[in-house]
Design goal:
The chain is mainly α. The chain contains six helices and two strands, in the order H-E-E-H-H-H-H-H.
Amino acid sequence: MSVFPSAKHLASWGGLSPGSEESAGKAKQVPTRKGNKYLRTILVQAAMSAKKTNGSFWHDKGRRLARLGPKKAAVALARSLASVVFHILRDRCDYRDPATIPPPPAVARARLVALADQIRRLGFDVTITPRPDPVASVS
């Protein structure tokens, strides 16, 4: 994977990047770029079957992208899969479902504050205390 400096370069090489054409400051709809037809075919097929897996991150993402239409959604999902494949091969790590990866601390804190505010607006008192980490207390 050292040939590709980033996941975007891999997606572009595979023909999964959106094309761009602009005239008079207005973006026009154009097809995706040409690329490696074999990689593109495999990734689109993998994306279409991944979005059929109920209860997975890819199923949920496919439903969010469904507003684009079935073919555009499949290409968008394939681009995301290309990014995951790039990072797995580059970092030599196992696949982890993106839904199971904990959010960064800043995002978790913002979500916590927003949920606490929502509960307060419903008329309840909220006290949030962090629970002790069971892994840290064992060591």
